[in-house]
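Good morning,

Attaching, inline, the backbone tokens for the sequence recovery test we're adding to the shared suite. The designed sequence is right after.
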């Protein structure tokens, strides 16, 4: 933890993206998350920060990892957590996003955690409700809590974020994780490289303040962090890669390509992993270099911090434990 940073309140009503957050606000959330890491490893993990608060997890897209992480975060802080899946809700019957927002708003929740397949849908919903909204991933737009948990993982292992050289590799085009991470890493003073085939890069990508490489060995040369991305075949309409086998040959992370990075470079992946597609099992499970499991652990602490930060200044909050 960075004890020097003051725990002031978070001045945003919602957490819709990393875009718009200052380095101080990001540091505030990371420091707050840091305080939850050790208690989460103890026998009694329950706190009363969110006692009396209601959190609704509203997922229009499947995500076992993120939804479970938010559920755990809410419950460990003592909140009442309700999970809503679109497969069992009236949204399947043709209810619009606005109708859903109005309906949920009438139940007076304190926080809505929303994942949606369309970019911008979470912001639209946030404009129709009175409670705080956290973006748990919208289309290929943003996934702020993933970038925060990645940042916490990096900071705990490297002691800093500023000055590090980070390579984000793979399916950048469809990745909200990449967008949020580029925003956060640039804001915090890291240098970002993108490594991908031309077909998996967004248009005018250089405007994002990154260096672009189409060769893994050149792109990984001297980097401190290797962040692999899942090949999102479900979002691909058309031919983006010749074949999975060829993609792994050129862009899959294995020992040979990793040799270009610094000897102590960390290996990261937001999950779920496609082993043998974007990452080799031997590298993914490297006990000395891979922090993929640690990312999952930090996810709970970060989501606890975000829930706490957004509810701290709400009226009639109970006492801190």
């Amino acid at each position: 933890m960075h004890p020097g940073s003051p725990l002031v309140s978070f001045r945003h009503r919602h957490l819709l993206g990393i875009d718009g957050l200052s380095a101080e606000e990001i540091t505030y959330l990371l420091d707050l998350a840091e305080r939850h890491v050790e208690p989460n490893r103890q026998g009694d993990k329950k706190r009363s920060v969110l006692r009396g608060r209601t959190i609704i997890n509203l997922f229009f897209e499947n995500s076992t990892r993120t939804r479970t992480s938010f559920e755990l975060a809410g419950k460990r802080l003592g909140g009442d957590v309700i999970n809503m899946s679109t497969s069992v809700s009236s949204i399947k019957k043709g209810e619009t996003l606005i109708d859903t927002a109005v309906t949920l708003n009438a139940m007076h929740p304190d926080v809505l955690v929303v994942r949606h397949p369309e970019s911008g849908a979470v912001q639209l919903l946030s404009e129709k409700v009175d409670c705080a909204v956290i973006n748990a991933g919208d289309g290929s737009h943003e996934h702020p809590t993933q970038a925060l948990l990645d940042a916490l993982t990096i900071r705990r292992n490297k002691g800093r974020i500023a000055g590090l050289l980070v390579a984000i590799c793979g399916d950048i085009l469809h990745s909200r994780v990449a967008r949020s991470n580029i925003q956060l890493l640039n804001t915090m003073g890291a240098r970002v490289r993108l490594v991908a085939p031309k077909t998996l890069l967004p248009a005018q990508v250089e405007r994002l303040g990154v260096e672009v490489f189409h060769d893994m060995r050149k792109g990984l040369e001297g980097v401190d962090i290797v962040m692999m991305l899942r090949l999102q075949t479900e979002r691909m309409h058309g031919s983006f890669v010749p074949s999975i086998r060829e993609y792994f040959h050129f862009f899959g992370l294995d020992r040979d390509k990793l040799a270009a990075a610094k000897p102590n470079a960390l290996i990261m992946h937001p999950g779920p992993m496609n082993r043998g597609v974007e990452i080799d099992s031997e590298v993914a499970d490297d006990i000395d270099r891979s922090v993929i499991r640690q990312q999952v652990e930090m996810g709970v602490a970060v989501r606890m911090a975000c829930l706490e930060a957004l509810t701290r200044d709400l009226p009639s909050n109970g006492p801190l434990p």
